[in-house]
Design a protein that fits this description.
7-stranded mixed β-sheet; Aminopeptidase; 30% strand; alpha+beta; 166 residues
């Protein structure tokens, strides 16, 4: 990976919006008739935690998290430009999203992807995500694959039992 830079931003970022537009076009082809169903759950307005990956100052990938519950963040809008795939960019974006989720107090990440995105499923499984029952709006949707990963939350050392030095 030459000169990969990850920036933390929000859904207002113009490069993020351009990448999401490419993602939506890709998903429209993959999902066909089901695309309209999924599109309603993929609005990017007011997402506060967005990562944009730049390679040689060009935006090449993105991802976002948003609160799903008090303890879980949902991974959304993961995408790497086709010309930049197979370089570990998606894994880097995902790792940074998980780090950020931990920093803001989440102990797990959930996500939904589709059976027509085998490379995404492989990425998430390699990163430690496990397939779970479909949640929320994806219950009963045959094409949906929902996944969960417990995050390594920082351990807070309990020092109450330690004897202070004299």
């Amino acid at each position: 990976m030459s000169d990969l830079t990850l920036i933390r931003t929000s859904s207002d970022n113009a490069d993020f919006r351009k990448l999401v537009s490419l993602l939506d076009r890709d998903l429209a082809v993959r999902d066909g008739d089901e695309h309209a169903f999924y599109a309603q759950f993929n609005k990017v307005d007011a997402i506060k935690e967005v990562i944009v990956a730049y390679q040689n100052n060009n935006p090449v990938g993105c991802g976002a998290i948003k609160p799903f519950s008090t303890s879980q963040a949902e991974v959304k809008r993961m995408f790497v430009h086709p010309d930049s795939r197979k370089q570990g960019i998606a894994a880097s974006v995902l790792n940074e999203l998980e780090t950020w989720a931990t920093e803001i107090g989440f102990s797990a990440c959930v996500l939904e992807t589709g059976k027509k995105q085998p490379e995404a499923i492989a990425l998430y499984q390699k990163a430690g995500y496990q397939i779970i029952s479909n949640y929320g709006q994806y219950i009963g949707v045959d094409n949906s694959v929902c996944m969960l990963k417990q995050l390594n939350t920082p351990t807070i050392l309990d020092t109450r039992h330690l004897i202070p030095n004299k």
